[in-house]
What does this fold into?
Amino acid sequence: MQVDIPVPRVPSPKITAPPAASDWDQLLPPRFPPGSPETGFAETLDHAGWVIPDALNKPLWGAVKRINHVLFRSPPPNPPVPEHEGSWKFSAIGDYGGGHSPQPQEAKSVAAGNPDLILTLGDNVYYTGVEGEWQQKWDPPEMFGDLRRNFPIMPSLGNHDLRREPDGVPYFKRFPELGGNRYYSFDHKGVHFVSVNSNESLEPGSTQLRWIEQDLAKSQSDWKVLFFHHPLFAGGPGDLGKTKDYLGPIIAKYGVDLVLTGHEHNYQRSRPINENGTIEVIAGGGGQSLHPFIKPQPAHNAYRDVDFGHVEVEVAGDELIGRYVVIDGSVRDTWVIHNNTPGHPATGAAVQAGAGAGAVTEPALPHPDPTPATVSSSGVTVPATGSGEVAETGGGTDVAGGVSGP
It folds into this structure.
């Protein structure tokens, strides 16, 4: 029996699209990077998670968690930080739409946090993105239907969303407010959010990269957050290599505070990726399957974990407090970014080892080229819509949209 497409009871941000709505760049290949052993291994796990029933998946996922906790144990996570009175929260979840038993548990966990809005980090359904998968694995109330009805959901596209639907028709059917925009931005209570489409070109001169730089240059918000599917820095097959070289200079130049990504089915928090203190958090354990770490922890990782979960970010004045919430509702990692936008006292990229501990300064990861990408003068206009230091401690909504596609 077909389930009705959920209709939100809470208004989502309004999208304003630039005039060049048909100026689409070519989609990238569906495997990132193609041909690597790690990618083949991850694809095998994804496919197994798609075809194997829950009764067999559960022991598989349990074995993945136990093996990784023994072989590739991360340093201890940071201790919790209490919530601030008068703050607000947003949540981020990726790689969740497999229809398995962890997905409804995760949906309940996200709702329990009562966020103002929910960001998705791609792979909203598995395995191919066709209409029937959305009807089975997204629309039912226990999957994502109730979340869609009760919270504004601001999505980004993953490779599985487009595998057999390169135009994203079922995706846009669930999100008509996007107006067909594959990337877009919006403001909410002092935070500027940009949804990037990592499935298409971000090379210098590409339509999308030009639009992102124009959009960030116009933003006057204290906080800037980018969210998309494929990671910049990853501990497995999800690392897109040159993408961090393309986006990295723009992220640094325009003071992006936080980058949220998925694709790898686990949790990873980076060290500062530039001198401004930007961090990347991978939250790809939304419910489809789990990806084990097959290598020792790389230098760019501050903390990582293999489990189902999502990220909850509290906006509390000049602090962003991030929490990694695992499937049972407990908080397994916490981090704080201090705003150093002009007018705020904090500066630098200090990393604090624990709540109440003294600051320990860590160098940012080196970036090969600090030169920003060129801004196009194509005439695309978007409405006017900081940067931070990281402390490792354990309105109205206007939107500007951009379009890309196959």
In short: The chain has one domain: 37-374+386-396. The domain at 37-374+386-396 is CATH 3.60.21.10 (Purple Acid Phosphatase; chain A, domain 2).
